[in-house]
Each structure stands twice: as structure tokens, then as C-alpha cells.
Write a structure and sequence with these properties.
By secondary structure, this protein is an alpha/beta fold. It folds into three domains: 244 residues, MetI-like (MetI-like fold); 156 residues, D-Maltodextrin-Binding Protein, domain 2 (3-Layer(aba) Sandwich); 92 residues, 3-Layer(aba) Sandwich (D-Maltodextrin-Binding Protein, domain 2). 62% of the residues lie in helices and 10% in strands. It has a five-stranded mixed β-sheet with strand order 7-6-8-5-9. A three-stranded antiparallel β-sheet has the order 3-10-4, with helices on both faces. Strand 1, helix 10 and strand 2 form a beta-alpha-beta unit. The longest helix is centred in the N-terminal third of the chain and has 39 residues. The radius of gyration is 27 Å and the shape is elongated.
Length: 519
């Protein structure tokens, strides 16, 4: 099949108006906010050395914080603030998606504008300023009529740098719920859809270059006193904004928002639920690539309407329990916790379990006589283990170590899909995999038994938001999924998603899964 005839290209193109429009919207808002703060601040502190050094130092420190970390930090801060305002004033705000992304990106945008504005004004020949004062200009007149026009090329260079930084960093806002061109990249990495990864990178780079060139046109127009260049640059920017924002603004509000975490199975289930709602003549869209804590809080705060989570994850990580009750007791206790603390409703169980498990190549396990985690314990000190980005900080890992006395020679963190290839090739000896993952069969791996039951049950549960608790239309649309997906079916779905061809997209796999359920 020709590379560009791959149906994933058309899938990527259909998503472009939504992703690009949201990307421009959040980038433009953040850049405007950053300039609105940093430019006046630079004017105030430019002749105050102490304040100037402090401001530049703080702005420089912000740049050392990884973009994803800065974006993620704003979410819990705003969430706490939203809860406080709700308690004090009876009105809150959404801490999900747009607001934390804008605030974090605005901070990222400040340094170039702040630094270049100060440098541009300080680089003006003092004799010119003295001459302006000598002809009777006030300080304000000298600044607006002489100093700023002379410093404008340097200031515009800082603005161009800020714009490129913001547009690039905005791709990292997907895990906190802000739709952007990063949706292509996160989804592509998790589902091994390299068309999406390439498309997202190219789109973000093209947008950054386009904005940079339009600002460069304005800059050169100001420097050369060419009104035509300035007008063309501004017109081009306005056309770009209109072209990307009009489709977003014109779109009707989605009735239901389906959430998904950052791994392949979640993309499949999110698409399955959205398709199920659409088949019931309900409007639905997906908000994918969300962090584990972010997605649960988003549901509790009605920022999304429905998603699939796992009983063990919720029991250990969300509700911070340390015991490990039997399956039915755990489910009953979770249902009570949902109702008591969050008013979240449990629609039901899909029918399969996706638990963390220690996984290794079948042939090597047989050669070493390793069938259970107890068998592994004595051999672990000479072996390496890999887990996803959060596994080694989760209670499950603590429970495994304490129950079996595990101590590995090396711990490595990897993107989930890459772990399986790594253990199959011998780059690592053991991985913390997922029991429903089809890659276990693809690479001929084996799941080690957990005789001490250190890891709790991980039944897949459909949860709905508090404001949808009485929505019988939503419940009726979801009920046909309850108990219909067994572990073998989910493994086959995950394996299909790993085939890395045009039929492996989450939407295509979800359609296959829906047809299988209907039979």
C-alpha cells in the first residue's frame, strides 16, 4: 500500500480543524496574556536594577522547568482554588484544559519579551534620549515617540521567540485536557500510529514557522517604515486566526464528552463508547490522553461525562486504601466511595480485567523455572525490570516488593508499548505489563502468577459524572456494553491496534469490537 494512501492520513486530516483551532486558541490567548504582563513590567523595571534582576531571574527559572511539568502543576493548584471559591462564594470554575494551559504557557512566553524589551530600550544611545529631553519632550513622550520605535525591532524579535516557544510547548497540554496538535503526538505514540506522530509534528512546526514569518514581516515593515509589510503581516495573522478558529466556534456544543487515559486500550474504549452513543443518536466526542488523576478529577468536576477506569487503580491510587478485599467486596466498597465522596455513578463492569502484572518471555521463564512472582524473587537481584512512567511510584509496586521481597538490579521507565519489544529482545528481563494487552501474545510472553494477591482486581468500570447521574438516556446507551467484553476479546482488540496499519486505528478497532459484541 502506498504510504500516502494509508487511511490514517485521511483520519488525521479530519481531526485537523478541531486540533489546530484549539491549538491556535490556547496559544494566542497565552501569548497575549504573557505579553500583557511582561511588556508593561519591562517598562517599569528597566531602570531599576534590583527589580530588573529579580524579574529576569524568576522568568529564567520558569524556563528551566520542563514544559509538561509546568502544565501539570497548574492543574492541582487551580483545582484547589476552584474548590475554595466554591466553598466561599458558591461559584467555581473549571480547572481542566484551557485555563491551566493558558496560565502555564503565558509564564513560558514572558522571558523573551521581558528580556528583549529591556535590552532594546537599554541599547538606545543615551545621547538620543538626552536630545529628546532637550527639545522639551516629557519622559512619556520620549518613551513612546523615540525609545520604543527604536527598540521595536529587538522587542519584535523577542515576541517571535515567545510565539514559537508557546506554539511548540502547547503540544504538551493534551494530558491536562486541552485539545491541541499534541493530541496527534500523544495518541500516535501510545497506539504506534506513526502517521499521527508525523502529522502532529509537521503541523506544529508549520504553524510555528507561519506565525514566525508573519511576525517577521511586521518587524521588517516597522524597521523599514513600510506600511504595506505591516498590513500584510497583520492581515496574514488575522486570516490564520480566522481560518483556525471559525470551525471551532461554528461547531455545536457536544452533548457528551468521553474521556480516555494515555494508553492504547483507553483510546479503543473511548472510541467504542463514543460510537455507541452516536449509534443511539447522541452527540459525542472524545477527550483523550489524560493523566490518571486528571481524568478522575475531570469526571468528578463534570468536565467530562463518561470514561472507563479500573477498580484496582481507583482503590489504591484514588482512594488510598492499602487493603486488598475480594472482588465483589471491592466493587461494592468502590460504589459507596463514588456516591459518598464524589457523586460519581458506576454504570457497570465491561467484563474484563486489566491488571498490572509482571511479564517475561515464555521460553526464558520456562528455562529458569519461573512460573510465579515467588519463583522470581530469588533471581531478581541479577535481573532488570521496566515499567511505565508511573508504575514505580504506585502502591502496586510497593505491595509487590513488600509481599515478595523483590529487589532488581536495574529499574527502567518506558513508553508502555515499547516495553514489550524491549523485554522480547532481551533489553530488559521483566516488565510491568497489563493482563489485557495483546502484545503479550504477539511477543510470546507469559504473565507470572501472583499467589499472594499483592495486586488487587482491576475490573474495567464505566463511570459517569455527577451531573449525568439521572441521565437515563446515557445509561440506556451504555448498558449494552456491560459484561460484553471478556479478557480474550480485549486482548485481541489490543493486538489489532498494535498491527500498525490502516486498520489499526482506535476507531477501526472499536468498530470491530462493537460488531463482535453485537454478534
Amino acid at each position: 500500500m502506498n504510504f500516502f494512501s494509508d487511511p490514517r492520513w485521511s483520519d488525521a486530516l479530519t481531526r485537523l480543524p478541531d486540533y489546530l483551532g484549539n491549538h491556535v486558541r490556547v496559544s494566542l490567548t497565552a501569548l497575549a496574556l504573557g505579553v500583557a504582563i511582561s511588556f508593561p513590567l519591562a517598562l517599569v523595571i528597566r531602570r531599576r536594577p534590583v527589580l530588573r534582576d529579580i524579574a529576569l531571574g524568576v522568568a529564567s527559572v520558569v524556563q528551566t522547568v520542563p514544559g509538561l511539568a509546568l502544565l501539570a502543576l497548574f492543574y492541582p493548584v487551580l483545582l484547589a482554588l476552584a474548590g475554595l471559591t466554591m466553598n466561599l462564594f458558591g461559584a467555581g470554575f473549571s480547572a481542566f484544559g484551557f485555563l491551566p494551559a493558558v496560565l502555564a504557557l503565558a509564564l513560558y512566553s514572558m522571558l523573551p519579551v521581558l528580556r528583549n524589551t529591556i535590552a532594546g530600550l537599554q541599547g538606545i544611545d543615551p545621547a538620543i534620549v538626552e536630545a529628546a529631553e532637550g527639545v522639551g519632550m516629557t519622559t512619556r513622550q520620549s518613551l513612546t515617540m523615540v525609545e520604543l520605535p527604536l527598540a521595536l525591532p529587538v522587542i519584535m524579535a523577542g515576541l517571535r521567540t515567545s510565539a514559537v516557544w508557546v506554539i511548540g510547548t502547547a503540544t504538551l497540554s493534551t494530558p491536562i485536557g486541552q485539545t491541541s496538535l499534541g493530541n496527534y503526538i500523544f495518541a500516535g505514540l501510545q497506539t504506534q500510529n506513526w502517521v499521527f506522530v508525523l502529522f502532529g509534528c509537521a503541523a506544529a512546526a508549520a504553524l510555528a514557522l507561519a506565525v514566525d514569518q508573519l511576525l517577521a514581516l511586521v518587524e521588517s515593515g516597522v524597521r523599514l517604515r513600510s506600511r504595506i509589510r505591516v498590513a500584510l503581516g497583520i492581515l496574514g495573522a488575522l486570516l490564520l486566526i480566522a481560518a483556525t478558529l471559525i470551525p471551532t466556534l461554528a461547531r455545536t456544543k457536544t452533548a457528551y464528552i468521553v474521556g480516555a487515559k494515555t494508553f492504547t486500550e483507553q483510546y479503543i474504549l473511548s472510541s467504542l463508547i463514543a460510537q455507541r452513543l452516536q449509534s443511539a443518536s447522541l452527540s459525542a466526542s472524545s477527550r483523550e490522553g489524560l493523566g490518571s488523576n486528571v481524568i478522575f478529577e475531570a469526571l468528578a468536576n463534570n468536565d467530562i461525562d463518561v470514561y472507563v477506569d479500573y477498580s484496582g487503580t481507583l482503590w489504591l491510587n484514588q482512594f488510598k486504601h492499602t487493603d486488598n478485599p475480594p472482588r465483589q467486596e471491592l466493587l461494592a466498597a468502590l460504589k459507596n466511595e463514588f456516591a459518598r465522596q464524589y457523586k460519581i455513578s458506576l454504570v457497570g463492569e465491561l467484563g474484563f480485567e486489566n491488571a498490572y502484572a509482571l511479564v517475561m518471555p515464555r521460553k526464558r521463564a520456562e528455562a529458569l523455572g519461573i512460573h510465579t512472582i515467588s519463583d522470581l524473587a530469588s533471581k531478581a537481584p541479577s535481573m532488570s525490570i521496566a515499567g511505565d512512567y508511573e508504575f514505580f511510584s504506585r502502591p502496586e509496586w510497593t505491595a509487590l516488593r513488600q509481599s515478595y521481597g523483590l529487589a532488581f538490579r536495574q529499574q527502567r521507565q518506558m513508553q508502555p508499548d515499547f516495553m514489550y519489544a524491549a523485554v522480547a529482545s532481551g533489553d530488559v528481563d521483566i516488565i510491568a505489563g497489563y493482563t489485557s494487552d495483546g502484545l503479550i501474545a504477539k511477543y510470546d510472553l507469559v504473565v507470572l502468577d501472583d499467589p499472594k494477591h499483592a495486586i488487587p482486581p482491576y475490573d474495567a468500570l464505566i463511570l459517569i459524572a455527577p451531573n449525568r447521574a439521572d441521565d437515563e438516556v446515557l445509561r440506556d446507551a451504555l448498558k449494552p456494553l456491560i459484561g460484553k467484553i471478556d479478557i480474550a476479546t480485549m486482548r485481541e482488540a489490543n493486538l489489532r491496534a498494535a498491527s500498525n496499519d490502516g486498520s489499526s486505528s482506535p476507531d477501526a478497532v472499536a468498530r470491530w469490537l462493537s460488531n463482535k459484541i453485537a454478534r
